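Progress narrative, work stream C.
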Amino acid sequence: MGLEMLNCHATPSQNAERERAYDIIASLLKIPFLDEEMPSANQALPPKMGCVDALSSQQSKDDSKFTWTDVTDRSIKSSTSSERPVDKDADVDTLQRSSPDGTDPDSEENMYKEMIFGEDALKIPPSESYCLSHPIRRGHFNISQDYSLNQVLEDLRTIWNWILTEKLHINPRDRHLYSAILVLGETFDNREIKEMLSIVLCDLGFTTAVVHQEALAAAFGNGLSTACVVNIGAQVTQVVCVEDGVALPHTALALPYGGDDISRCLLWVQRCHRTWPNFQTDPVNKPIDMLMLNKIKESYSQIKSGSFDAVTLVHSYEHEKSVGHQKTKLSALNVPPMGLLYPRVLVPEEYPPPPRSWFQDYDDMLEDPWQTNDSLYSSGNGGFGMWDSYPMFPTRLKKFDNIGLVEAIVSSILSTGRIDLQRKLFCSIQLVGGTASTAGLAPVLEQRVLNTIPSNQPIEKAEVCSFKLNVNHFLSRNALSIYCK
C-alpha cells in the first residue's frame, strides 16, 4: 500500500485530547503538566549532550543503531524466488525485477535481491526502488484501494514459503509429510481464516491444517487452563477469557493500539519537551526509524512515579552513507507506556478502512469442524468464490477505540456472569506480548483493576502476571519488500 494514503497527522481535536491525557498521566505520576514543561516559542532550546563521534563497547551494546540492508545479490538467481510457488493466474510482473533499458537484470553490473523479508525489509535504503508490503495490519488483512486481496494473499504465500524454505529448511517436495498448526488471534474474521487455510493447504502443500486460538496457545504455553489473557501486540491489544481450556468468545475484546503506538508517542513526548535532536525522524514513512524508537522504548520506558529521564544515542537515517547520531537526554519516558491505560495520548495512524463486510462469514472456523474438497479451491484468485454469496453476520469480536486496558480487562471478566469464574480470572490475569514486559506495568494494572471492579461485586483480590508469549509473531510483525526498479 502506498504510504501517501496514510493519515499520520493528528487533528487539532486529537492533539487537544492527547495533551489533556498527558496532563492526567502527569498528575498520576507526580510530574509537571505539559504546559509547565514545554519551552515557549521564544525560549532557547535546552542544551544537548553533545555529538558523539565514537562509541565505546558499552554504548554499542545498548544504543539503537541499525545498518542499512545490503540489497545486492551475490548469486545470479535467488533460491527463494526459484522455489516459491506462483499462481499461474497471478500477476508475475509484480514479483520480478525488470530493467527499463532491456538489459539482463541478473547481469554482473545490476544484481539485486528479488525480495527481502523480515527486519531486513524495514532497513532498505530509501534510495533503492523497493515496494514495502505489510499484508496484515491492525489484526486484519491490509486490503485497500491500493493493496488488493490478490496481492495480500500472494504476499502471505511468499512470506510463509520463505520462512519454510530459508528458516525451517523444509523442502517444498516434503511438505506433504507435515501438518500445520495455524495460530491466530481473535481479530481475524472467518473469511480471512479461510483464505489463510487455503494458502496453507493448497499453495504451501501441507496435507492437514489445524486452527488454534492465540489466547489458548498463550495460556497453555504458560501452564494454565483458566486465565484472562491480555495480549499486547505491536498494533492490536486483545483481551479474552479462557475457562478450562476453552476461549469464551463473548469475552473477547480488541483494542486498536499496541507497542508501535507507544513508540510513536515516545517521539511525540520528546518533541513536546524539545529534547529530540533536529533529525527528520518519521516512524510512519521510514520503517527504520520505527525500529530505532522501538529499541529505545524497550530499553528505557517503564511505569514509575516521579521524573524519569535517560541519556541515549539518537540516530539519523536521513542519508544512508553518512548516518548521524547525537547523545541526548530524553524526558518523561514513563508517560508513553501509560497510554495503555489512557489511550487518548496515543493517536494511531490510519489507512482508509477496508470493506469490513467482505470478511464476515456464516461459518465459525474456530468452533465448528470444517471439511473441504478440491472443488472448493477452484477460484481463480486463490480464494473461496463459493462463499461470496453467503449471508453476512456481525463479527463476534467487540472492538473499542478509546477505553483503556484496565476497563477492557474488567469488562471482559465481568461479562462471564459467574462469580466463581470471575474470582478465578481476576486472580489469573496473564500479560503476554513484547510490551507486557514493560517494567512497572503489571503492578499498576493489578492495583487499578482491583480499584475499578464495581463495589457491588464480591471480588477482593486481583493478580497480574507477565509472561513472554510462547507463540511466534512473525506474520503480524514482519514485512515483505518486492523489487520494483
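Work stream C, second folded protein:
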Amino acid sequence: MDYFPARAFSYILSVLFVWLVCMPRARGEIHHLSIENDKRSLIILEQFGFTSAGHLDLEVRNVVWSNPDEFPLPDDHLQYIGFFLATEDDWLQANRQIEQKSVGCVLQSPAIHLLFTFSRLNGTNPFQYNNTYPVGRPDRYLVMFSNCLGFSVSMSVRTCMYNMEGNTRDYLSEGKTQLPYLYFCFFWVYMVLAGIWTHVCVKQKATVHRIHILMGILVALKALYMFSEGEDMFYTKKTGTPHGWDVAFYAFSFLKGVMLFVVIVLIGTGWSFLKPYLQGKEKKVLMIVIPLQVLANIATVVIGETGFSDKNWLTWTQLLLLVDVICCCAVLFPIVWSIKHLREAARTDGKAARNLAKLTLFRQYYIVVVSYIYFTRIVVFALQIVTSYHYTWISELARELATLAFYVFTGYKFRPIPHNPYFMLDEEEEEAAVDEMLKDDEFEL
C-alpha cells in the first residue's frame, strides 16, 4: 500500500542537502519542539554529526492524532507514523526505494535507522515515549518524523544529541566542537586590531575623519560578536543550551551586519574624507541596505530558534539569502559611482595624477569587496558542501580569515595619515597620469 506520496520526497530532496548541510547551526543541541495539528508527511527535526560514541535521547509527550479524512485503515496502521535517523546516503537510498515502489513508506525502508513507530506507544491517551539510542556508526544524521498516513498529529518532542568524550558529554556536532576556541582566538585578534586602530587615530587625530570612527566601532562590534558566538558555542558544547548567550549573539550579529554594510557604502562614496555629504542616490542605497539588514536579522533569529522543523523554515532561508544578495550588490554601486566621478574630475580640474591615485585606490577597494563577497558567499558555501562533516570548522576558519584580511586591507588603505603617498605626486607623474586616464576610459560594474 503506497501511503507516502513520492512527490513529497522529490520536493524534500530538491532542497534538503543544498540547504541543510550549509545552514547556520541551531542555538543549542537540546531542543524542545511543539507540534500542533500537523499533517506534514515528513518533518526534519535536527541534524547532528555523531562519533562512534554518539547518543540520541528522544522524548515524546502528549501524543494525540486523528484521521481527519476517515480513510479505512489496516489494523497495523500506526507502524506508518514514527521517528527515524538517516544519513545522506541512507536518505537517497530510501527515496529510490519509494520511487521504485519497493516500499510504500520511508519507515519500511531497511536503509534508515528506525527509532520507533506509534505502534509502540502504550498507556492511555495522550501517549508518551522516551528512550536513549546509541549511534554506533559515526556519520552526520538527520532526525526525522514521518507521517505516511496524513494524520493530524499533535505532540511535544525533546531531542538531546551528544557525543561522549570519556565520561563527558559534548553537545556540539562532530566537526563543530573546535568552534568555541576558534571564535575566542578571533575575538582576541580583533581586540588587538581595535587597540591598534585606536592608537593610530589618537596619534593622527588631526587627520581623523568621521568614517575612521565608524571603522573603529565596526572592529569593536566584530570583536564582541566573536566573543558572544564563542560563549554561545562554549555553553552549548558543555550543557546543550547557550544559557542566554544566543541573545547577545543575535544582538551583536545585527549591529555588526548593519555597521559593516554602512561602512562599505560610506567608504565607497568617499564620505567625510573626500566629501562632507552624501548625494541623493547614495542616501537611497543606505535607506535600502539598513532595513534589509533588519529583515535579515529577523530571518536569522527565526531560522536559528525554530530550526528545520518549522513549516516556514525554507521560506525564511530563501528570504535571508535573497536579502544578503541584494545588500552585497547594493554596496558595490557607490564604489563604481566614485570611480566614474574621479575619472570625470581628472579631465576638468587639471589634477589627473591626484585623481588617478584616488581612482587606483577605489578600484583596488572595488576588487577587494567583490572578492570578499564572492569568497564568503560562494567559496565558503562550496567548502561546506565538499568538506567532510568532521571538518566543518575549516569552512568557518576560511570565512573568518577572509573577513580578517578584508578588515586589515580596508583599515590600511583608508587609515588616517597626514601625508598620503597616493596624493604626493610630481609634474612628470601628472603628465603620465593624463595619458593613463585617456587610455583607461571605462570601468563597468
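Confidence is low (pLDDT under 50) at residues 1-27, 421-434. No further action is required on this item.
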